[in-house]
Amino acid sequence: MFGLGAPELGIILVIVLIIFGPSKLPEIGKAIGSGLGELKKATKEVEESVSLDDE
Predict the structure, then answer these.
(1) Which residue windows are transmembrane per the record (predicted)?
(2) Angle 13-26-30 from CA coordinates, rounded to 5°
(3) 54 band by pLDDT with thresholds 50, 70 and 90
(4) Inter-residue contact 41 to 49 (CB < 8 Å)
(5) What is the pLDDT of residues 7-47, one digit of tens each?
(6) Does a structural domain hold residue 17?
(7) Global pTM?
(8) Handedness of CA 12, 17, 23, 24 (dihedral sign)
(9) What's the domain count of the chain?
(10) Do the domain assignments include residue 26?
(11) Residue 25 CB: number of other CB atoms within 10 A?
C-alpha cells in the first residue's frame, strides 16, 4: 500500500493523534470510510458504463 510499512503508519497515526486529539478520531475514520465507499461505488459505476458502451 503505497510502500508504507508499519513504522511509517505508526508515525502518521501519532501525528494525527497530536493534531486532532483522540476524541475526533472516530469522526475522521467514519468520514474516510464513507468517502472510500463512495469512491468505490463511483468507480464501479464508471466501469459498468464503459463495459456497456463497448458492447
Answers:
(1) 6-23
(2) 105
(3) low
(4) no
(5) 898 898 889 889 988 888 889 889 989 999 999 999 999 98
(6) no
(7) 0.59
(8) negative
(9) 1
(10) yes
(11) 13
